[in-house]
Amino acid sequence: MADKQFVYFFGEGTKDMKKLLGGKGANLSEMTNIGLPVPPGFTITTETCNLFYELGKKWPEGLWEQVLSNLAKLENKMGMKFNDLVNPLLVSVRSGSAVSMPGMMDTVLNLGLNDKTVQALIKKTGNERFAWDAYRRFIQMFGDVVMEVKHEKFEHALTSMKKKKGVKVDTELTAADLKELVDEYKKIVMDEKGVSFPQDAKEQLKMAMNAVFDSWNNNRAISYRNLYDIPHSLGTAVNVQSMVFGNMGNDSGTGVAFTRNPSTGENKQDGEYLLNAQGEDVVAGIRTPLTIDNLKKDMPKIYDQLMDIFKTLENHYKDMQDIEFTFQEGTLYMLQTRTGKRTAASAIRVAVDMFKEGLIDKKTAVLRVEPDQLDQILHKRLDPKEKEKAKVIAKGLPASPGAAVGKVVFHAADAVKEAKDGFKVILVRTETSPEDIEGMATAQGILTARGGMTSHAAVVARGMGKCCVAGAEAIKVFEKSDYFTVGGIRINKDEWITLDGGTGEVFLGQMPVVDPELSGSFGEFMEWVDTFRKLGVRTNADTPKDAEVARNFGAEGIGLTRTEHMFFEASRIKAFRKMIVAKDEESRREALMTILPFQKQDFIGIFKAMEGLPVTIRLLDPPLHEFLPSEDKDIAEIAKELDITFEELKSIVVSLHEINPMMGHRGCRLPITHPEILEMQTRAIIEAAIELTKKGVVVKPEIMIPVVGILNEVKLLKKQIVQIADALIKKNNVKLDYKVGTMIEVPRACLTADEIATEAEFFSFGTNDLTQLTFAFSRDDSGKFLPDYIKKGILEKDPFATLDQVGVGELIKIAVAKGRATNKDLKVGICGEHGGDPASVEWCHKNSFNYVSCSPYRVPIARLAAAHAAIKEKTGEIFRDK
Amino acid sequence: MADKQFVYFFGEGTKDMKKLLGGKGANLSEMTNIGLPVPPGFTITTETCNLFYELGKKWPEGLWEQVLSNLAKLENKMGMKFNDLVNPLLVSVRSGSAVSMPGMMDTVLNLGLNDKTVQALIKKTGNERFAWDAYRRFIQMFGDVVMEVKHEKFEHALTSMKKKKGVKVDTELTAADLKELVDEYKKIVMDEKGVSFPQDAKEQLKMAMNAVFDSWNNNRAISYRNLYDIPHSLGTAVNVQSMVFGNMGNDSGTGVAFTRNPSTGENKQDGEYLLNAQGEDVVAGIRTPLTIDNLKKDMPKIYDQLMDIFKTLENHYKDMQDIEFTFQEGTLYMLQTRTGKRTAASAIRVAVDMFKEGLIDKKTAVLRVEPDQLDQILHKRLDPKEKEKAKVIAKGLPASPGAAVGKVVFHAADAVKEAKDGFKVILVRTETSPEDIEGMATAQGILTARGGMTSHAAVVARGMGKCCVAGAEAIKVFEKSDYFTVGGIRINKDEWITLDGGTGEVFLGQMPVVDPELSGSFGEFMEWVDTFRKLGVRTNADTPKDAEVARNFGAEGIGLTRTEHMFFEASRIKAFRKMIVAKDEESRREALMTILPFQKQDFIGIFKAMEGLPVTIRLLDPPLHEFLPSEDKDIAEIAKELDITFEELKSIVVSLHEINPMMGHRGCRLPITHPEILEMQTRAIIEAAIELTKKGVVVKPEIMIPVVGILNEVKLLKKQIVQIADALIKKNNVKLDYKVGTMIEVPRACLTADEIATEAEFFSFGTNDLTQLTFAFSRDDSGKFLPDYIKKGILEKDPFATLDQVGVGELIKIAVAKGRATNKDLKVGICGEHGGDPASVEWCHKNSFNYVSCSPYRVPIARLAAAHAAIKEKTGEIFRDK
Q1: Could you tell me which chain A residue has the CA closest to the CA of B712?
Q2: Contact A751/B660, CB-based, under 8 Å?
Q3: How far is A660 from chain B (nearest CA, A)?
Q4: Which of B647, B771, B784 to mutate against chain A (most A CBs within 10 Å)?
Q5: A593-634 pLDDT per residue, tens
Q6: Which single residue of A177, A781, B735, B772 has CA 20 to 30 Å from B864?
Q7: Which range (B126-135, B429-438, B807-816) has the least confidence?
Q8: Complex ipTM above 0.95?
Q9: Residue B566: which of B677, B640, B642, B698 has the closest Cα?
Q10: Do residues A538 and A557 make contact, with C-beta atoms less than 8 angstroms apart?
Q11: Which of A654, A773, A796 is the best mutation test for B, with the most CBs of B within 10 A?
Q12: Do A660 and B660 count as a contact with CB atoms less than 8 A apart?
């Protein structure tokens, strides 16, 4: 172990050694190598940190020797020495892991100062105040970060000193004041920790290194890694770098900058700096930094040099950089460079521009934008600055992105009414049901107290591209009394609230909203995306409007049209209810016939919007009780409407009640007991298709049977569908191709897919229900325990948001393999919410799906995710599953 | 095809050719071969019938030629000829498939009679009346069965004739009357069918053969096969046999007999006969047949000959036979022999006796009793004779066998109260819930309107060995008003009803019940059974009493103890409710501590009853809301009891409400959010085990975690269990081995069984829930469509009664293979209701399970089924699945 290289001098590493040297260390080496002015120093590897823990918080043999020899090299290079009374070496010590973890550990600056070297610094700089201030800052930082003295103690002493001296800001304190403060600080350390402040620079370095290692596993760091899925095994590096000072007068300064604009992507540097300041002064916010442009005037030489360096960096790194710099007495030093974080708009523009500038190829440009980021540019957002100040009253699941501001209403009917009166409203409910559709459509946003990422509210809202916060369990909704409570506050009808669907936050009052804008580069970028993509991308759309939106976003057809929503419109619900309460088949048929023309018009609209593209229509899916009221008051009212007695309707409602409706009388089980529903729907679909075909419109209907688990279900229903469809086609003498397939959402369908595929022409995996059944997690109820599951690490992710590849994925693989074994032409797609989740899209690509289908606003995301998967397969980063 | 043998002369076949010749044909050949007096004839094969259908109801080439040549052989043998004017050949034509299908097609007797041969018959027999009666009967049978003339027409003519002649019974009609009737019958045929009655015997035979072929697919036959799971591909044979006449005077006669007693198994023939009669006269019931014993006096020679034949048959067939015989003018003929159907008691006695007589070996004896039959001797039954007369008011599922008579009550509390007052009651509910346990225990039987074979009522009743009819959907129960209605009748509280749990029938009033009796052979027989069995058989038992019953029935341990029922006892439910409504962990813990001593006593009782055998205890499984009331009235009452406000309790009830409780906050999800429940239960189990161990009682606890789907669930909970258990064992300084395993009932657990088996020491498949989730069939709700599924042939069997091998079985196979791959010592069992179903037990044997576990009263059935499977594996009839 002693021959292992624990320490790399800047220049010994490269930018590709992030894992070993951390991001900061690797890039300091890289910049050194390409000749940029980096203050010399060395990096202790992340492996060392891991060894430190393996050895029970002990140093591996040979580490100190390697540190000492690199220190000697540094002293030699700088012509300075630790503890030297003439030319003392001062260093900064910083942590730095492979993945940036801001705020994990504060930086220690000016290490090497002590009671003697401070005198040397005075002599060398001729600036007594500067030296005492540096020493004072060092004790404060080291005391806090390394020795764990409460920082309030130091702050209190500083405040007292200012009071005593009658000054307001630190800079007004004199050298003598600061010297006095150093004494007080040292006394604080002695009082708090029972030891004197370490005077030997090597001792200081040892302690600082230990502190950095320790910081890797402090609570803050562990939580951060859990939150952002960062492996705990990475470890942190320690960077020891010779100090440069931005606070040595007006020819010194410090700043940060992006090589391009991180908000817009404009090809112009963006940053700020302060003269005569250290990095922490910029952060402290006492003085207002200037924009980089001003540097041209203030320090033209430095400015020009910086611009050259930016070019060099971009040419070298082939990406927009986020850098830190300091200049000391007219000399520029680079302290950090890393890939700059950016908004989606910026990411797209930078990618497109850099391709055009010849910096990167198209493949790289496409990989530069994260699919999930696109949500930002497709939806309204809250103004980030205003958000910081606002009061969050509750937090739910970020069920559908965007922002919404409106007056609270508790009933769909109220939403419709108030919207008609010109008010913006937010519909708040314990949970939504299909009856609420119209209210949801007119509301600005939806807030529910119950339900997960695939609850009714969430799915419908995403389909509509409407902001939704779901499952905010802290909220108690009293629909009947028109108010909700949360954390002791009561919010009445017509009070204003604001939702952030991207974070799940709920705010009291009205907040300013920023509209989305699709930059000019978006269209061009998405065209490139499609040149790489292998996987088809369709949309889930229930209306012509949704279909149009999705087509504009690049959808190549519809993967799922849910027909149940069509029954809830006022003009139809009555007829449908008449069907449900009818005593015999004939009256059921009669009631359905009044819906047929409406349903046909629905399909005509959707087929037109998707002309030439396939449209998958799912037959009626939900249990019939969802179409009937449950409260006695409503039963009475609707019984009157239907011209039957309260008792009759009540008895039907009771007999239709189900204990577990998710596994009840729904899906294909409806047409098996009520064939007339299927007949009506098949007629509506095929008649609509025929009518358009006659007008020359190309229509490709795909009829999908839901909740299938048994071959004979498909056999029986397909026979009925084909009989009706073929008779109509023959009668009308048109050429019309249609397909009949099944939604695969029941585990048994997967396990017997070889049988089912002999009848089905396509499989569309309904991964919402498949996830429910495979886990036995009711999506309506799992909110009671799923948060605990994530918190306790039982599950890494919500399986309703990202496909569970190990369990549900395994079942789907079985189904695809079995299905294709008996039907090699079987088309395979996914139409659950996972169709719009990038990780799940990649999985579908790996498993040779034909397409994914997602809500309209996620179509661009799915397209990009599919392109990423295809590119990654080409570069060997991922492989097809066997 | 023309070289195929379509026709076998009696004697050309053997008893093992049932598939080809049908049961009747094969045995007629066999009897011919062993020298018994069988009237000669031939059999047209079942293959011919299948070919007939394949050819679109046409005869295969060569068939008629083969029939003709066999007919010639028959004529030759008999010295008689078709259409002969001196010695005309008359034959019977009968269907006969491989599996007996009584009533599928009536027999045609006396074929060959026509206007001329009837005269020859007169001359030959000198009995004019006999000949005209034979012709008359032939036209009637042939007209009805072959020509499809409505049989009422003939009956009407016969009745008119009797009226006209002023006589009461057929036998009073003279030869002249019958001759006149023949003319009328022929006229009826002409009027109805427009053709004259066929006069050519060969033509008659052709038509009769076609009629038999056709009859294979008449509605009655198809329904019968669907009902009894008989493959439609079997086809029927046609038996053409020369006629013998039992109605040729007082030295002629006909009868049926069993070689041993089919009710008791006593080794003494049992049967009846009529002198001067044909088979149909016995059936018609005009004359009362005599028991076989009387034949000794009437026809001693025939009697002796018959007794010899019985011996011969039993020695040859090695089983009890059910035979038909006729004697004509002092000569005995055998018309049929087949294996005799028998009661369970008879089956056991015959098997044991025949082994002792040296007729069969033990293996054969064990195979002679069908596992399902044992239900008969373990439960009360309705007197079969009384049952025939009684009025069935409803039919539900035969959820738990036995019979029950009692006064109707609608509330568990009423059941308890009335039982205390000495009344027998039947608890009638829409569905039962755990709250009803005590009422169910005191009731004679349970009747529910909703729920399937694994509904709460069904499962609990079977566990208690109590009669239950579940899911009688025609019944509407009005619990609040204390009555139920069915088919227009209203049955009030305290009215008497009777249930047959073996058929699902519900009767009005009180009916006599027969107590079960275990014959002397039962114990001996079951000992033999266990010498063959490889599969372990455990029981599902929640109380010491159930455990004892099961142990007496041969259970080798407990496969499932449900702990939730223990919480419903009055003394505990309050404490448990206090736990649920507690605001913090401490009060929850406090409430649970008051239950601990009770729970510990439960386990002590069960451990004692199962001393030395493994006892698998499942941790609390149901969602917490099952322990709270749902009606406002009850909420108010219980809130008072718990010393909280109505609003508080109501709000808890509302917050615990679940849309799909089956997939909600239950099973291992409870201890993950409420670790203190698991702590209390682990302590109760281990403390009970320690207390007994100290007294020298050998205890083998197996702690089972329910509803597992994710490795980390098991990891987390097992760690907690082991910590508590090991600490207690160490503190008490005893040696106690215990296991921790999981119930496998969630599809994801099967799919990730390789992961889960690294932590679990055993898998116990909970096939009830696994079936629910794999099919997405809620067992509480599937009653709405499952009957349609069976009726329409979508499913052959209720998957809750018999394991669905294709779907659910596939998932279990995946789980077993994966689980044993990472844990070769993994114990695998099944504890769903399928553990007591013979077909499912065989499947478990084939898949190398370690054990099955079933309700106490099904333990003997499972033992026998397991023995059958082991024997069948040895004989190569079944194979282990790979």
Answers
A1: A794
A2: no
A3: 4
A4: B784
A5: 999 999 999 999 999 999 999 999 999 999 999 899 888 888
A6: B772
A7: B429-438
A8: no
A9: B677
A10: yes
A11: A773
A12: yes
- Mean pLDDT across chain A: 92
- Residue B456 annotated among the catalytic residues of the structure: yes
Residue A777: list chain B partners with CB under 8 A: 663
Query: Of A415-424, B239-248, B650-659, B791-800, where does the model show the most confidence?
Result: B239-248
For B454-557, strand residue ranges (E) read 467-470, 476-478, 483-486, 489-492, 496-500, 505-508, 513-514, 536-540
Whether the CB-CB separation of A467 and A444 falls below 8 Å is answered with: yes
- Inter-chain CB pairs, A–B, below 8 Å: 186
Amino acid at A806: V
Q: Do the Cβ atoms of A378 and A516 come closer than 8 Å?
A: yes
Q: Which residues from chain B sit within 8 angstroms of residue A811, using beta carbons?
A: 747, 751
Q: What is the pLDDT of residue B104?
A: 67
Contact at CB, A746 and B772, closer than 8 angstroms: no
> CB A662 to CB B663 under 8 A?
yes
pTM: 0.83
The chain B residue lying nearest A772, using CA atoms, is B663
Any residues with CB less than 8 A from the CB of B544 and at least 6 apart, and which?
B605, B606, B608, B609
The string of DSSP letters for A200-267 reads -HHHHHHHHHHHHHHHTTSHHHHHHHHHTT--TTS-EEEEEEE---S-SSTT-EEEEEESS-TTT--S
Chain B residues within an 8 Å CB radius of A785 = 665, 669, 672-673
What residues pair up with B700 in beta bridges, in sequence order? B614
User: Residues A131, A60: contact at Cβ < 8 Å?
Assistant: no
Cα(B677)–Cα(B719) distance, rounded to whole angstroms?
15
- Phi first, then psi: give them for residue A271, nearest 5 degrees: -175, -175
Nearest Cα of chain B lies from the Cα of A649 at a distance, in angstroms, of 15
> Which residue in A779, A781, A792 has the most chain B C-beta atoms within 10 A of its own C-beta, making it the best mutation to test that interface?
A781
Q: From CA A448, how far away is CA A428, in angstroms rounded? A: 6
| Alpha-carbon distance A769 to nearest alpha carbon in chain B (angstroms) | 9
List the single residue in B716, B773, B806 with the smallest CB-CB distance to A776: B773
Sequence-distant (≥ 6) Cβ neighbours of residue A325 within 8 angstroms:
A254, A255, A256, A257, A273, A306, A332, A333, A334, A335
| Block residue for tokens 């100190």 | A64
Write b or e for each residue in B81-117: b if 16 or more Cβ atoms lie within 10 A of its Cβ, otherwise e: bbbbeeebbbbbbbbbbbbbbeebbbebbbbbbbeeb
Contact (CB, 8 A) for B820 and B848: no
User: What's residue A781's pLDDT?
Assistant: 86
Helix axes A201-215, A46-54, angle to 10 degrees: 80
At A297-315, the pLDDT tens digits run: 999 999 999 999 999 999 9
Please state the length of chain B.
882
* Residue-wise burial string across A554-587, b where 16 or more C-beta atoms lie within 10 A, e elsewhere: bbbbbbbbbbbbbbbeeebbebbbbbbbbeeeee
DSSP secondary structure letter of residue A197: P
Note the pLDDT tens digit of each residue in B704-750.
999 999 999 999 999 999 999 999 999 999 999 999 999 999 999 99
Chain A CB contacts of B661 below 8 Å:
659-660, 778, 781
Could you count the other beta carbons within 10 Å of the beta carbon of residue A792? 13
Which of B651, B716, B810 is opposite residue A792, by nearest beta carbon? B716
Range with the poorest average pLDDT among A128-132, A385-389, A784-788, B841-845: A385-389
The answer to whether B443 and B427 have CB atoms below 8 angstroms apart is yes
- Taking residues B455-483, what's their average pLDDT? 87
Distance CA B793, CA A716 (A): 10
Q: Closest-CA residue in chain B for A814?
A: B751
Q: Which residues on neighbouring strands pair with residue A819, listed in sequence order?
A: none
Beta strand A7-9 pairing with A41-44: antiparallel
B675 Cβ contact partners less than 8 Å away, ≥ 6 residues apart:
B720
